[in-house]
Amino acid sequence: MIIDYLDRSAPGDLQADLCIVGAGPAGIAIARAFIGSSITVCMIEGGGLAGEDRSQSLYDGDSAGDLPLDAGTSRMRVFGGSCTLWGGGCIPFADSDLEARDWVPDSGWPLRYANLAPWYERAREFCQIAPSHGFGPGAFDGPPPRQPLDLDPEALVNFIFARSPVTFGDAYREELEQAPNVTVLLHANVMELESTADAGTVTGARIGALDGRRGRVRARHYVLAAGGIENARILLLSDSVATAGLGNDRDVVGRYFMDHPSGTIGNVHSNDPDRLTRPYERTIGKVRAPLSPEIGLSFDVQRAHRSLNARVHPFPVEGQVPRGIRALRDVRAALRPPRHNEATLLEARLCAALQNGPNGAAVAVQQNLVVSAIRLGLHMGDVVKAVAQKVADRPTVRSDRAELVGFFEQAPQRDSRVTLGDRTDALGLRRVRIDWRINDLDRHTWRTTTLIAGERLAAACDGRFEPAPWAIGEAAPEVHGTAHHLGTTRMSTDPSTGVVDPDGKVHGMSNLHIAGSSVFPTGGWAFPTFTIVALSLRLAEQLRVLLSAGGGLV
Asked: Can you say whether the dihedral through the CA atoms of 255, 256, 260, 261 is positive or negative?
C-alpha cells in the first residue's frame, strides 16, 4: 500500500520487519524482492509521486571544493528517485574496474565480477532489458543497430551498453501499492536514525513531514537507500548517541566522494564528421536504440599510461540548417503544449541542470505558429529532401564538426567529502556541504584521454583534431558533474577505509545496511544504475536470510 504521511488520518508511527529509507532504484528493488513473502516492509520516501519544489528544496546544500556541485539540482526527491530523469544506460563492471590498481591509491573492491554476475542477471530483468541481450564482464553483447568504428583495440574499445526502457517509479508503483506486506510512506523525511546506548543497533527511524508532523518507524533491520549524498547525510545527522554520526567511528562517512566529471575535450574537423558520430547515436529515427556503443580507453592503455578509466562520446554539431527544416522545427515547437504543472517544470529545470551533451546544444525557442507555417510552405523542398535522407539512414542536416565529450572515472580521495554545513532546511536539519576535490591523477587522465582518443577518432574520419586547452592542461578545468554520486559510504573489509563490509552492512552495527552508489569504492566510467540494482538485489537476499532466521529483533 502507499500512504501519504501528510494525510493526518494515516498512522504517525509504523512498525515493520524491514525499513528502507529511499524509494529510488535501490529501495524499490529491495522492497519488490519481498512482495508476497511473510516479511513486512516499510519504505520511506521524502518526496511524493511527482516532483514538488518544496520537497526538492530539502536537497539544497553548499559547495566548497575544487569543482562546484549543486546538491539541489543533481538529484531528485521523488518516488522513483533521480532515475525519474535517467537515460536508461546499463552496463556491468569488469574485473578491471573492481581490482586494485597500484597507480590508483585506495582502489579495489572486495568483490569480483563472478560475485556480481548472478545479480546482474536479475538486474537485467528488473530493468526490463530483453533477455536476448546477453552480457559479460564490462559490456553487453552486440551488435548495436549501426556498426561502430573499427578502433585500435590496444587503445580504444567499443563497449556496448543496453538501454532500460523504464523509469522505476512508474514501472513498479502498482505492484508496490497492491502488495499487502509492503507500505510505501510518502512525504516522510528521515531526520535521524536512533540507536542503542552503544550505537551498535538501530532502534528506530525518526521521521518528519513538512507540515510539522513527527513520528517513528521501528523495524528489525534498516537499509539506507537514499543516494550517494543523502546516505552519508543521514548517518552524520544521527548523532544523538554517536556524536560523529552512526557508523563513523573511523571518520570515513562522507569521505571519498566522487562523480564522473565530464567536459568537451575538443573538436574533430572533417569533410565527413557524420562518419564518426552516426555509429554512436543513441536514437535511430525516433526510437531509442536498445543497444548502443560507447568508446572507452582500453585497460592496456590505462595501465601503460597509469591513468583512470574514461569514455568519449562524439556528438554531431549541426552546420547550416536549411530554411525549411528550421521552419518545421519552429512549427513543432509552437504546437508543443506549454509546461504549467509543478512536476513537469521541476523535471525540466533538473534536466537542464544535468545536461550532459555538447556545449553547443541547441535550445528551442517558441515561435509564432502562423509565421513559421508560412516559412515551412515556402521551403517545403528542404523537408522533402530531409525525408529522403532519413529513409536512406543519413542525417537530415549535415554536421559541421564532431564535438568530443569525455566522461571520466575519478580518483578516490579521502578529503573529497560530504559534511554537514551550518545552514538548516525547513525541517531544522543541517544541510550538506560538498567539498568535491580533483587531483593530479584526474588531470593526467583528462590529458591522456584527450590525446589518445582525439587523434585516433580524427583519423577515423580523415579529420583534424583540435583539443580544448583545458583538456591538455593549458587552462582551468571545464568539467561538471553527471549526478553519479559515489563513494561516501564505501565498501571495504577494513573499517578504517570503508563504512560497509562486502555485504553492505555498516561496520560495527548489527542491523544497519546501505544500498546504492555510495558503497562504490571506485566508479570506473560505467553508468552506475545497473550495478546499484545488482548490489541491491544481492543485499535483499541476504536480508531475507537474516529476517527469516529472526535475527536483529529490536
From this structure: positive
